[in-house]
Amino acid sequence: QVQLVESGGGLVQPGGSLRLSCVVSGTISRFNIMGWYRQFPGKQREHVATMLTEGGTNYADSVKGRFTISRDNAKNTVFLQMNSLKPEDTAVYYCKYSRPPNVYWGQGTQVTVSS
């Protein structure tokens, strides 16, 4: 069993920064995909950023250049550094761990960008 716990969400003003963290515990494969997704009210969950164990990354166009995903494999932790935040970034952010065919999700953490 694998479980994920996100933290770091909160309220921030437009243009501000926030860093999300996700700690993964349980039986973890050496090679996996970890990432961040977000869900707007009334919408489906969408991809934000993902990262392979080896370091390859993939970002949604909407966050490219502003968000940075990173991993600490020794600590089974993935981070999302969010800079230049916009009100449209307001959403519940979810951490995802995947080693096909298995997928695991965190509980979500709220990020609100507002003045």
Provide structural commentary.
By secondary structure, this protein is mainly beta. It is built from no helices and eleven strands. The chain has strands at 2-7, 10-12, 18-26, 33-39, 46-52, 57-59, 67-72, 77-82, 91-99, 102-105, 109-113. The strands form two sheets. Strands 2, 4, 5, 6, 9, 10 and 11 form a seven-stranded mixed beta sheet that branches. Strand 9 (91-99) and strand 10 form a beta hairpin. The mean pLDDT is 96.
Spans of 5+ residues with little confidence (pLDDT < 50)? Answer: none
Shape: globular
Instruction: Please compute the radius of gyration using only Cα atoms.
Output: 13 Å
Mean pLDDT: 96
The arrangement of helices and strands along the chain is: EEEEEEEEEEE
Number of strands: 11
Structural class: mainly beta
How many helical stretches? Answer: 0
Biggest sheet character: 7 strands, mixed
How much β-strand is present in the residues?
over 45%
Oligomer designation: single chain
The N- to C-terminal Cα distance equals: 40 Å
Estimated helix fraction: under 10%
For this entry, give a set of tags:
seven-stranded mixed sheet, mainly beta, globular, four-stranded antiparallel sheet
